[in-house]
Amino acid sequence: MENTGLNRDNAFFWEGLKQGKLLIQRCTSCQTLRHPPSPMCPSCQSLEKDVVEASGKGVIHSFVNLHHPALPAFDDPNPIALVELEEGTRLVAGLINIEPEDVRIGMPVKAEITQCDDELTLALFSPVAE
Which residue in 59, 65, 91 sits closest to 80, CA to CA? Predict the structure, then answer.
């Protein structure tokens, strides 16, 4: 069986993207948001969890312009960012609608749920006017 990285802890995230929603796991005991999803809360060790829909708004916390390996679905170089969502959690995502040399830390961005092919839907981030 091929290992796609999909498991019972993160399936909600990928299903949410297919439905056009950016979902983040939340501990129902202490309300801590976490990404990537995990079976246990790192703050209080609770196993109780649910999900919340994120606004998709955030800022670039860090970034890299990926040159290798080239990925067929993306331009080369491929700008990748660590986005801090306004809800407080961070996720790694691709950047679109921006030239790699124009990416800046602190730049406001907004998620665009993008169907890359028949199998893959991603949250890609695009800059927004300040």
Answer: 65
- Whether the full predicted model's pTM is greater than 0.85, yes or no, is yes
| DSSP, res 95 | B
Cis peptide, bond prior to residue 72, ω within 30 of zero: no
Question: Which amino acid is it at 5?
Answer: G
- 57-97 pLDDT, tens digit per residue, is 999 999 998 887 766 667 778 899 999 999 999 999 999 99
29: its two tokens:
């005991």
- Cβ atoms of 40 and 30 closer than 8 Å: no
pLDDT score of 9: 87
| Backbone torsions φ then ψ of 15, nearest 5 degrees | -65, -40
